[in-house]
Amino acid sequence: DTLTIVTGAVGVAKLLKNAKASERDLYLGTNHLVIPVPQLLWKAVIYPTDDRSSDVIFFRSNYYSERT
After folding, report:
1. pTM above 0.85, yes or no
2. What is the three-class DSSP state of 32?
3. 5: exposed, middle or buried (Cβ count in 10 Å: 0-12, 13-18, 19+)
4. pLDDT value at 67 more than 60
5. What average pLDDT score do residues 8-35 get?
6. What pLDDT sits at residue 9?
7. What is the distance between the alpha carbons of residues 22 and 65, in angstroms, rounded to a whole number?
8. CB hemisphere CA count around 19 (13 angstroms)
9. Is residue 62 a contact partner of residue 13, using CB atoms and an 8 Å limit?
10. Rounded distance, CA 11 to CA 17, Å?
11. What tens digit of pLDDT does each residue of 24-62 get?
12. Measured distance CA(40)–CA(59) in Å, rounded
């Protein structure tokens, strides 16, 4: 049996500067919007069996807030 792992990302994480300010998208890079920081990361682990498939899915949210 082979274990299959699939990963992905959805959206662009946002930075909330403070409660009254608007959010802005987060990117990796200096002075350029090079690589967007994912808002949500997911990973599916699929282990096929004879009777049925045993799958597990993990989610992780990237939430950033500037300290005030």
Report:
1. no
2. coil
3. exposed
4. no
5. 81
6. 92
7. 12
8. 1
9. yes
10. 19
11. 888 888 877 789 989 888 888 887 776 666 677 787 776
12. 7
Tokens of 64: 């950033």
Residue 8 has a pLDDT of 92
Q: State how far the Cα of 50 lies from the Cα of 28, in Å rounded to an integer.
A: 44
Q: How far apart are CA 15 and CA 27, in angstroms?
A: 10
The pair of structure tokens assigned to 23 is: 């959010």
* Pair 25, 13: CB distance under 8 Å: yes
- Choose among 13, 65, 10: nearest CA to 41: 10
Residue entry with tokens 């200096």: 30
Asked whether the beta carbons of 66 and 23 are under 8 A apart, the reply is no
